[in-house]
What does this fold into?
Amino acid sequence: MAGPGHPDTGIGRRPPPSAERVLIYRFAECVLDSRSLELSVRGAIVKLEPKPLELLLFLLRHPGEVVTKDELQDGVWPGRILSESVLTKAVAKLRQGLGDEDQTILKTVHGYGYRLVAPVTLEVAGPTPSAPQLQLAVGDHPPLRPHWQLTERLGSGGLGEVWLAAHAKTGERRVFKFALDANGLTALKREITLFRVLKDTHGDRPDLIRLLDWNVDEQPYFIESEYAAGGSLPQWAEARGGLIAVPLDERLELVAQAADALAAAHAAGVLHKDLKPANLLISFDDAGQARVRLGDFGSGRMMDLARLERLEITRLGFTRAAGEQDDDSSGTPFYFAPELIAGQQPTVQTDLYALGVILYQMSVGDLKRPLTAGWERDVADPLLREDVAAAAAGQIDGRLGDAGELARRLRGRADRAAARHAEREQVAESERLKAKLARLHAARRRLIPLAGVLLIGVIATSLMALRASQARIAAELETAKSQAINRFVNEDLLNAANPLQRPPGAPEVTVRAALATAEQTVDARFADQPAVAASVLTTLGVLRHEFGDYDQALVLLDRAIAKAESAPAERDKARLERASLLISADRYDEAIAALDSLLADQLREPGTAKTDVLETRLRLLEARSGQGSDPDFLDDLATLRDDANRALGEPNWIAGEAGGLIASIHRVAGLPERGVDDARRAYAALRVVLGADHPTTLKVQVSLAHSLNALGQKDEAVSALREAFERMKLRFGPTGTDTLHVQNEFGFVLNLQGRYAEGEAVFADLVARHEQRGNGQSLDITAPLSNLANARLQLGRPAEALPLIERGLAILKALPEPQPARTVILRRLQAESLMALKRNDEAKLALDAGEAAASVLPDTDLRRLALYGQRGCWLIVSGDSVAGERLLDAAIAGLRKQIKDDHPLLAPLLLARASVPH
It folds into this structure.
């Protein structure tokens, strides 16, 4: 057990020495034991000074590699400025001890560094029974610290010893952690490195224990850290008479403080990996209030080791031998996340799981109680049950992604409870209102104008969001159906939504709940009016589509099609909306089949309106362009535009949207100059026909902006996108479907221009808006997630990109229909992130999964080709340069046939190809 004021710093955490893993290096005729640092040459023990031995160990961890002089200096003499003669003398002593005068073991690479050329083999063995001891005692002076005196041993174990010391004159107390051997030294160095990262990122945070000094140059090695007067969390609780004696609010505030500290570590790219109560230390502020401080990062890891280079921090404690892995099982099993037990890599969510267990223990007032099945019965507060479940969910994708969010939830309990109470009151009030309205049926006529306004807004917004013409909207409101739907909205949808109580700008989830209630009454209300029922179901399906509820929208539209079997116009309207939904969901094959069938029926039906046929043709060409497998659709689009102009006159919305689609296809093909005039003409025409704020007009404005950007007119492109975004927000609100679509395109162009910091801000806000409207697990959020991940990846933060990618993949996996195109995009980004993190084995698995998904895409698909290019990069990094270059060259050649060199799919591959040594 840890002593007062110091975390459980690994002392006592590892198994006893007889069970601990030790690496034995064998090379030439030499053997080096990594624990005892005992070197034998041709069977005889050779005594070497510490620095030549450390130098040898460093080189053995990089067999066959040329190690620079700077790397050796940083690894063996960290933080010191040395003359070159120091390294030269250490190498000379090492060679003398090895008997390597002819450089058959260690070769000098003149002007650069050294290379261990002898083959190296590793063995895993237990250490010698007699583990080294420091022989420290109370009253001793710590080495190199004559003014400090050891007062209490706080802990000891396989890694070293931890002591409390006091200053002889001032009485100030500090904690010293000593290393017994090479493994302990590595742990100390790791903790030093992570402390430097945290300090460089945040400065001196009061909730993170500071390291004050260290000695890693000569034995005994140690680090010196602050002392926390309240001891560890368990010791502080015991001093208070037991945790259960501490008020619940005070306990939860301590968890919130721990969450803040953990969030700060994660923001710096640091995983803790051993979060538990013993590593939460208690200090006191000026008012005597307990304050949590997070300590013991000795088991931690960097999420992105490249960040150390950017911060110019030496990788102390992060150098692994060939074949050696980070010990991801280190930590305390009580707080192990399930994925660690399954052998997966630790993540931010791994730390959050441990914090969730601590939250459960703090909630029940028992730091020894495990989180087992049925734990919910122990937590009376429903909000706390939600918080524990969110932090300690068994599946990663169901767990919170940010420790700071847990802190906000805990500190907002009172407001959340009040909101829940208000919701219950609102439901009760809704029931009272319904009863009152039933009694005052005659007074209902006064609500009819309000219901009519709501209905018109709902139908107009929905249909406009799906690019319907003004004529079509007018037809939707024909007298008989309009009156029937008015009654439906008033008596079902309006009552369920409780408009007399619902404040302006209430969240859309309220409307969802109203829709769910209303959807159940359609069949009974319109049992003798199937055409009206079909029209209502189509409108409800369109609204579900608008909210991103694709599966429920399909159910409603299928119901509408079945109801309208005897009403061809209503049936075909529902079929067209259903096909449009399939296009939105990237299910192009299904959409094409449905639209082909619809078009054939429309052409056979003599009474079909010309506009309906033209719109079906337009949607069919939109689906074919999304599929990307039809070389003739450009000609077909031009033909459609001419047919629309002849049938409807110029300008008209169908010809305008077709012109915008032509421009998009040219741009994707790398020929924006061919389409920009089409986009300009289409945009001008749609402003006249539909108005500047219509979603179809704004959609073509986005297409024009993309073309301008591809032509290098970057400022004009951003200006056009910003205008479209602002218009959408004014027309449909900040969380409208079309608003979110334009915001995604705005951020995408910022990414294309290399303005990744701005793009990141746009996409982070976009993800939050999707979550605000309840789309956190829908298909619609996957594109913003992948774009946000790409921005962070390009900003050099792959560890922050990876959870976003994994979340997107989890969403796609849960959908009832496969999403190959989006899966391929995310798998490529996942592989790129993992490679940046040096996790090449996992990157291979991501590429394998991506290629399986890509198998249904055309061979010429840009996303598929980019994925193959990433596979080539992986092969090169993995040592198969011949195969890698061949695959990379083939992918580049295929992409160049369709896009220009500065395209974001091609440019990184060209850069990777140029960096391959020849």
User: Anything to note?
Assistant: The chain has a mean pLDDT of 78. The radius of gyration is 33 Å. The longest helix spans residues 413-439. The first strand starts at residue 22 and ends at 27.
